[in-house]
Structure formats: structure tokens, C-alpha cells
Amino acid sequence: MRKIALAFTVLSLVAFQYAAPAQAQVARTWVSGVGDDLNPCSRTAPCRTFAGAISKTASSGEISVLDHGSFGAVTITKPITISSEGLEAGVLVSGTNGIIVNVPNATDVVVLRGLALEGLGTGLNGITVLTGGTVQIEQCTIEEFTGFGINFATTVAGARLQVVDTIVRNNGNFGTGAGGGILVNPTSTAEATLNYVWLENNVLGIRTQGSGAGISNTTITNSVAVNNASAGFAAATGGTLRVEHSVSTHNGTGIGCASGMVRIDNMTITDNTTALSTGGTCLSFKNNDIDIPALPGGAQ
Questions:
Q1: What is the rounded CA–CA span in Å between residue 50 and residue 126?
Q2: pLDDT tens figures, 6-37
Q3: What was the pLDDT predicted at 23?
Q4: pTM to 2 decimals?
Q5: Residue 110 has what pLDDT?
Q6: What pLDDT sits at residue 279?
Q7: Residue 15: which residues within 8 A CB-CB, separation 6 or more?
Q8: How far is 54 from 58, CA to CA, in rounded Å?
Q9: CA–CA separation, 68 vs 66, rounded Å?
Q10: What pLDDT does 204 receive?
Q11: What is the DSSP letter of 178?
Q12: What does the DSSP 8-state code read for residue 107?
């Protein structure tokens, strides 16, 4: 009898080991406002948060949103897509960052599509990029962060930021004058491209610069900077900025090139407190409409 009982125990342990393997990661997972992070994140059994789904999503996979909801902050450490098509997919945070991208390689690609990031007036940065990769931000709204809506502080040479069809508004600390819409501030050579981006009512619209040995090259097209307390578009030391077919209006400074290099063409720069700052290099090409306030004594 004792031998039979022992044999049964051993067989039970073996069966348990095979019945409970580690959960495999899959190419596509799902989140829902009524999901549960204990689920496998399938379409019929979705997870509740992006953080819960990312551990179950394979590298270069996709997390998709099933319905309206707030899905929490997340740190991304591998190439992945987080996508919401036509649904309200919120990332609401207080006193912390919304999304941190910390992928290791310049070849890694992270796509953030259709997300609404809300800092509730106390959040730090909406999206922070710390290391490498290409980060593509599409059709997003980022607002109410005390730092920057997007803080591109990559440390990996060749990293890229691409922002398309996105609204960045009401960011920065208006009491201290710090923060703002978008900061491009790499510590190595990197580039940023913005197309159809709306920068509104931030402390600063966008500034491109470099820290240490960092060099940033930023191109902006078909975009608007409006009602930003400081500059609408600006370049500082280590930064080169080209702005085309865009509008800067009702900002503290329309174009800030006090210590960086800015090239503008087919721009409308109007109704700013200061049209252009000086001290760095401002180059104007082709059909710019610049409204410069009247100089003292009526000089033009």
C-alpha cells in the first residue's frame, strides 16, 4: 500500500508540472476596460492594463485596445506596438510618468498609436524616451504634465523620434516656467521629425538641443505652435531645427534661435510678443510671412 501511495504522489507531481507551464508570449494581445491582468490577454479574455499585457506580448508584437478605458502607465523595454483604433484609450497618471520607453537598440521600433495621455496637473512627463530605437507617436493627445508632454532624452546614437497627427497641450510648470510640450535632448546624435503636430498652451512649444556630446537634428512640417508662454519653436546649444509650412502665433517668442540653429521656410510667424530671438543662427528661406512688432520711434 505504501509503494502504491508513493507512486501516485510522484505521478501527480509530474502531471502538475506538465499541466502548468510558463505562459508563452504571443504576437498580439488585447486590453479592455473590463479585463483582468490574470487573463491570458487574448481577444476573448483580455487584460486590464498595458503593464499587464506587455509581459505576455512577444517582442515586435502588438497590444490592441478592445473598448474605451484607462489602461495605466507602462514601461516599454522591447520593440512593440500599442494601438487604439477609434477608441478612447487613456493613460491617466498622477505624480509619475505616463509611458517610459527604455529599449536598448537603435534598431528597435516602438509605435504608440491613438492614445490619450493625461497627467492630471501633477504627472511628470507624458512620454519619456531614455535609450535607443525609433519611437513613432501617431494620433495621440498628451496634456497636463508638469514636465514635458514628450521628453526625448535618448542615449543611443541613431535613435529617432517621429510624431504625426498629434496634439500636445497644457504641459509644463507655469509657476516656475519649466517644462513644456516637446523636448528633444539626446546625449548622442539623434533626430526627430514632426508632421501635423499641434503645440498649444504649453510653457514651451518645442525645443531641440543636445546634452554633453549630444547633437539633435529636428524637422517640423505642417504644424502649429500657439499660445505657448515661452517660444513656439526653439533650438538651443547642440540643436538644429528646420521648420517648414508651419505657423507660430500668440507665443512669447515665435522662433527661438538664441543659441542653436533654426532654418525656416514657408512659415507664418505672427502676433507673438517677440517674432524672432537672436544670438544663435536664424536662416530664412522662401516665402516667410513674419509679423515683426513696430520698433521704438516708429522705425521699421
A1: 15
A2: 444 443 444 444 443 446 799 999 999 999 99
A3: 60
A4: 0.90
A5: 98
A6: 81
A7: none
A8: 8
A9: 7
A10: 98
A11: B
A12: T
Consecutive H or E run containing 156: none
Cβ contact 139:168 at 8 Å: no
Confidence at residue 157, expressed as pLDDT on a 0 to 100 scale: 93
Among positive and negative, which fits the CA dihedral 236, 207, 133, 243?
A: negative
Q: Which domains does the chain have, with CATH numbers?
A: 24-66 (no CATH), 68-294 (2.160.20)
Q: Which three cell numbers stand for residue 279?
A: 544670438
- Name the stretches of the chain with pLDDT < 50: 1-22, 295-300
C-alpha cell belonging to residue 217: 537634428
Element (H, E) at 248: strand 247-249
The label of the residue with cell 530605437 reads 133
Q: What is the dihedral of CA 258, 168, 177, 271, to 10 degrees?
A: 60
- What gap in Å lies between CA 22 and CA 3, rounded to an integer? 31
CA-CA-CA-CA torsion for 62, 65, 70, 73, nearest 10 degrees?
A: 0
